[in-house]
Amino acid sequence: MTNKNIQNITHFGLILMILICVYFFSQGYFTNPQLLQATLSKAGILAPLLFILLQIIQVIIPIIPGGASSALGITAFGAVNGFIYNYIGICIGSICIFLLVRKYGHRIILKLCKKKDYDKYMKYTYDQNKFDTFFMLAIFLPCAPDDLLCMLAGLTHMSLKKFVCIILLGKPLSLIAYSYGLTQLFQIIERWL
């Protein structure tokens, strides 16, 4: 698959996510979480598993904005369960993309992201100690390009153990900030509509 195809899929995913959000707004899902939960309950035990799978996929192949899917998880499953499902999916996806890059190298990164972004952040990998610190801080922050940084970490000498520790300890704070912030944004937009 070419870089252009991946970008087209990403754009399609973004448009699809916007359409889904518009539909959810029009149906009252963001103002009535019980309605969304009732809809998801039709999938039974598969609903959380499907959502976790969605989160894993969106980390590996960024077809939808991660923050938007995280807010959807909070809205759909409630604050605690939504956080847990987001956390599980994003952590598994981050570890998977790290291992994929570790195995296949920079070629996979260039297929999944823009070369401009790759070049912009690649410079941080030249000094392992500085990259480790930068990576740890970036994972804690909610606005960092986490997926790309996880890919770049796969190119460095960072151990899998260290990577997993940073992801498991760093993701909760940024995930809470993203999810809470986007949930609040959805509520503000709903009031305008």
Automatic annotation (TrEMBL):
Membrane-traversing stretches: 12-31, 43-64, 84-101
Topology of the protein relative to the lipid bilayer: Multi-pass membrane protein
Cell location: Cell membrane
Keywords of this entry: Cell membrane, Membrane, Transmembrane, Transmembrane helix
Keyword Transmembrane among record annotations: yes
Keyword Oxidoreductase belongs to the record: no
Domain VTT, first and last residues per copy: 64-181
Pfam families the record matches: VTT_dom (PF09335)
Similarity comment: Belongs to the TVP38/TMEM64 family.
Protein name: TVP38/TMEM64 family membrane protein
Protein's organism: Holdemanella hominis
